[in-house]
C-alpha cells in the first residue's frame, strides 16, 4: 500500500502544480493591467530602468515557453505574453527580466546553477540506466554510482528554487516601483508568480522523494550482502 501511495504522490504533485499554474495564468491573462503595457513593453521598461540596454526581447513559440537566455542575453516571451496587456503577461515578463538582472549582477545561486548544468544533464541522462542495472543485477556499487549521478540532478533542482523565488521577488519590486501595476493589482500579480513557483517546488519535492527511496533501496541491498 505504501508504494502505491508513494507513486500516487510523485504523479499527483506535479499534476497539481501544473493545474495551479494553468488556472492562474488562464484567469489573469484575461485581466488587463491598468498600465495597458504589453509584456514586451514591460520587459523593455524594466531592463532599461536597470541599465540593461544590451539585453534583447524576442517573441518565441509555445505555451508558457517564456525564458531568459543567458548566452544570447535575450528575454524570450511566448506570443500571448509578448503582445498581451494582461496582469499575467506583465508578471511573467517581469519574472524573466528578473533572471536577466541576476545574470548582470552575477547572482551567486544563478552562477552555481549554471555550473551544475553539465553534471545535472549527465545525471538526468545516465543515472537511471545505472540504477536499473544495479537493482536488477543486484550490483550495489553500480546502484550507488547511479544514485550519485542522480543526486547531482537533485541538487540542481533544489538550487533552482532560490533562483526562481528571487526572480519573482525582483519582478514584484520592479512592476510596483515602475508603476506598471496598481496597488490593487499586486495580489493578482503575486498569485501568478506564486503559481509558477509551485512547478519548481513540485519538481524539487519529487526529485528529493525519489532520491530518498533509492537510498533506502541501496541501504537494504548492502545490508543483505553482509
TrEMBL record:
Keywords: Membrane, Transmembrane, Transmembrane helix
Membrane-spanning residues: 6-25, 115-136, 142-163, 192-218
Lineage: superkingdom: Bacteria
InterPro entries: Zn_peptidase_2
PANTHER family cross-referenced by the UniProt entry: MEMBRANE PROTEASE YUGP-RELATED
Name of the molecule in the record: Probable metal-dependent peptidase
Amino acid at each position: 500500500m505504501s508504494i502505491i501511495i508513494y507513486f500516487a504522490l510523485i504523479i499527483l504533485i506535479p499534476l497539481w502544480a501544473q493545474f495551479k499554474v494553468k488556472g492562474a495564468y488562464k484567469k489573469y491573462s484575461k485581466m488587463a493591467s491598468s498600465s495597458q503595457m504589453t509584456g514586451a513593453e514591460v520587459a523593455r521598461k524594466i531592463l532599461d530602468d536597470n541599465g540593461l540596454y544590451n539585453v534583447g526581447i524576442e517573441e518565441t513559440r509555445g505555451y508558457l515557453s517564456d525564458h531568459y537566455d543567458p548566452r544570447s542575453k535575450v528575454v524570450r516571451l511566448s506570443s500571448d505574453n509578448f503582445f498581451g496587456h494582461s496582469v499575467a503577461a506583465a508578471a511573467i515578463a517581469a519574472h524573466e527580466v528578473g533572471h536577466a538582472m541576476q545574470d548582470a549582477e552575477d547572482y551567486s545561486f544563478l552562477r552555481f546553477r549554471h555550473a551544475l548544468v553539465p553534471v545535472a544533464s549527465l545525471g538526468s541522462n545516465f543515472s537511471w540506466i545505472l540504477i536499473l542495472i544495479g537493482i536488477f543485477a543486484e550490483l550495489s556499487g553500480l546502484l550507488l554510482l547511479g544514485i550519485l549521478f542522480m543526486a547531482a540532478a537533485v541538487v540542481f533542482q533544489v538550487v533552482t528554487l532560490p533562483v526562481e523565488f528571487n526572480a519573482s521577488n525582483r519582478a514584484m519590486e520592479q512592476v510596483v516601483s515602475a508603476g506598471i501595476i496598481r496597488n490593487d493589482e499586486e495580489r493578482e500579480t503575486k498569485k501568478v508568480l506564486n503559481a509558477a513557483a509551485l512547478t519548481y517546488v513540485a519538481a524539487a519535492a519529487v526529485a528529493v522523494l525519489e532520491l530518498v527511496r533509492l537510498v533506502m533501496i541501496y541501504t537494504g541491498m548492502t545490508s543483505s550482502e553482509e
